[in-house]
C-alpha cells in the first residue's frame, strides 16, 4: 500500500510541474462552486437577500445575461493573450538563452494559478448563464450567483495586471539567472547545514552486494525518506553509486547494500529512484551550474554577442562555487549521529573543469570576460585551505591563460591578465 502511495505521490509530484496541472485543479474548483451556488439558489438564497440586502442581488434577467456573456467573451480574449505571452517567453528563452530553461519556466506556479483563475471564472459564468431560465411569476433569477461572477471577474482582472507585471520580469535574463542561483544557493546551503559538526566515517563498500539499473534514463532524484526507513528497519547501510543528473544505462551499478535483503525490500529501494528527462534545480543543485554555464555560452555566441550577460552568469557561478568548494565530496545521510547512507556526487574537480572548459573555449577571445573568470578563480582560492582544491583551481587558471595567449594577440591585454 505504501509503495503504491509512493508511486502515486511521485506521479503527482511530476504533474505539478506541467503547465496544465494547477489550471485543471482550479477549474474543477470553479465548476464545484458553480454547483454549490446553484444548490443555494434552489434553497432561495437570492429571494432571502432581496428581502434584507437588495443591493447584493441583480434581479433583471437581461442585465444578468449581458453581464455573463460579456465576462465570458472578455475572459477568453484575456486568456488567449496571456497564453500567447507565455509562448513568447518560452520561445525567447529557448532561442536567446538555453532550451534547458524551459522546464523551470513552464513550472512557474504563479502563471499556472493565474491561468486557472481565468478558466475557473469562465466555467463558472457559463454554468450560471445556463442556469438562468426564462422569466416567470414564480421564478427567481439567481442574482446572488451573478454577483459572485462580478467578484470573480474583478479578481481575474487583478490577476491579469499581476500577470503582465510578472511576465515582464520573467522575460528578463537577469531575473532568470537570479532565480536559478537563489534556488541552487538555498539547496547547497541546506546540504552544508546538514554536514555541519558531523564526522564522516563510512566503511569500505567494495564487497557489498551490487544492484544494477533496470532501465536507461536520467537519474534525477531519490527518496531519502524511504531509503532511511528501509535502512533502519533492516539494520543495514546503503551506497548510491550513480550520480544524480547523469544518464544511467541499463546494467550499470545503481546502488549497493551492506547485507542481503529480500526481494520485497530491494524492490522498494528500486522504487525510491526517480528517472526523468526533466531537470529541476530543486532536485539537483548541479542543474544550476549547467544552466548558468549555457546562458553564458549562448550570450557569447556570434549571433547573440552579449558579454555583459556572460559576465553576470559568471558572477552567479562564482557565488555557487563559493559554497560548493567548502562542501564535502560525498553526501552522507545520518541517523542519530550514525552515517547510514552514502551518495556519490560530481567531484569539485570535475564540476569546475566542465564549467571552465566550456567557458574558456567560447570566451577566450574576449579579454574582459577572461579577466572576470581569472578574478573569479583567484577569489575562489580564498574560500578553502585544502591544498588539493587550491591546486585544482591553479590548474584551471593556467589552462585559461594558455587559451587566452592563443586567442588574444595584444601584448597589453595579455600583460593585464598575467598581472592578475
From TrEMBL:
It holds the Pfam family DUF2254. It comes from the Bacteria. The chain crosses the membrane at residues 20-40, 67-90, 111-132, 144-164. InterPro entries: DUF2254_membrane (IPR018723). Keywords: Membrane, Transmembrane, Transmembrane helix. This is DUF2254 domain-containing protein. The lineage of its organism: Bacteria, Pseudomonadati, Bacteroidota, Flavobacteriia, Flavobacteriales.
Amino acid at each position: 500500500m505504501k509503495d503504491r502511495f509512493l508511486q502515486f505521490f511521485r506521479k503527482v509530484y511530476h504533474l505539478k510541474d506541467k503547465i496544465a496541472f494547477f489550471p485543471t485543479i482550479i477549474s474543477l474548483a470553479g465548476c464545484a462552486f458553480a454547483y454549490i451556488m446553484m444548490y443555494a439558489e434552489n434553497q432561495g438564497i437570492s429571494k432571502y437577500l432581496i428581502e434584507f440586502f437588495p443591493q447584493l442581488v441583480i434581479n433583471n434577467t437581461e442585465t444578468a445575461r449581458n453581464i455573463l456573456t460579456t465576462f465570458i467573451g472578455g475572459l477568453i480574449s484575456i486568456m488567449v493573450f496571456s497564453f500567447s505571452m507565455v509562448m513568447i517567453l518560452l520561445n525567447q528563452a529557448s532561442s536567446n538563452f538555453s532550451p534547458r530553461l524551459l522546464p523551470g519556466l513552464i513550472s512557474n506556479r504563479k502563471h499556472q494559478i493565474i491561468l486557472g483563475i481565468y478558466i475557473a471564472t469562465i466555467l463558472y459564468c457559463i454554468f450560471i448563464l445556463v442556469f438562468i431560465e426564462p422569466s416567470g411569476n414564480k421564478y427567481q433569477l439567481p442574482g446572488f450567483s451573478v454577483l459572485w461572477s462580478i467578484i470573480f471577474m474583478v479578481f481575474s482582472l487583478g490577476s491579469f495586471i499581476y500577470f503582465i507585471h510578472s511576465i515582464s520580469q520573467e522575460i528578463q535574463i537577469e531575473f532568470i539567472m537570479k532565480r536559478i542561483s537563489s534556488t541552487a544557493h538555498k539547496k547547497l546551503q541546506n546540504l552544508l547545514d546538514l554536514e555541519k559538526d558531523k564526522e564522516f566515517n563510512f566503511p569500505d563498500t567494495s564487497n557489498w552486494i551490487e544492484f544494477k539499473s533496470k532501465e536507461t534514463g536520467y537519474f534525477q532524484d531519490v527518496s531519502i525518506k524511504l531509503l532511511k526507513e528501509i535502512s533502519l528497519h533492516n539494520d543495514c547501510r546503503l551506497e548510491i553509486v550513480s550520480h544524480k543528473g547523469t544518464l544511467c544505462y541499463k546494467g550499470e551499478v545503481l546502488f549497493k547494500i551492506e547485507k542481503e535483503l529480500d526481494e520485497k525490500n530491494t524492490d522498494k529501494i528500486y522504487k525510491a529512484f526517480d528517472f526523468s528527462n526533466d531537470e529541476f534545480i530543486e532536485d539537483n543543485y548541479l542543474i544550476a551550474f549547467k544552466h548558468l554555464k549555457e546562458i553564458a555560452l549562448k550570450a557569447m555566441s556570434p549571433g547573440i554577442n552579449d558579454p555583459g550577460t556572460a559576465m553576470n552568469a559568471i558572477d552567479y557561478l562564482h557565488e555557487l562555487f563559493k559554497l560548493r568548494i567548502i562542501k564535502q565530496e560525498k553526501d552522507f545521510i545520518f541517523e542519530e549521529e550514525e552515517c547510514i547512507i552514502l551518495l556519490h556526487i560530481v567531484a569539485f574537480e570535475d564540476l569546475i573543469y566542465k564549467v571552465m572548459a566550456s567557458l574558456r573555449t567560447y570566451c577566450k577571445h574576449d579579454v574582459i570576460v577572461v579577466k572576470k573568470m581569472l578574478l573569479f578563480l583567484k577569489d575562489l582560492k580564498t574560500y578553502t585551505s585544502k591544498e588539493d582544491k587550491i591546486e585544482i583551481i591553479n590548474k584551471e587558471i593556467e589552462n585559461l591563460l594558455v587559451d587566452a595567449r592563443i586567442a588574444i594577440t595584444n601584448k597589453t591585454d595579455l600583460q593585464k591578465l598575467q598581472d592578475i
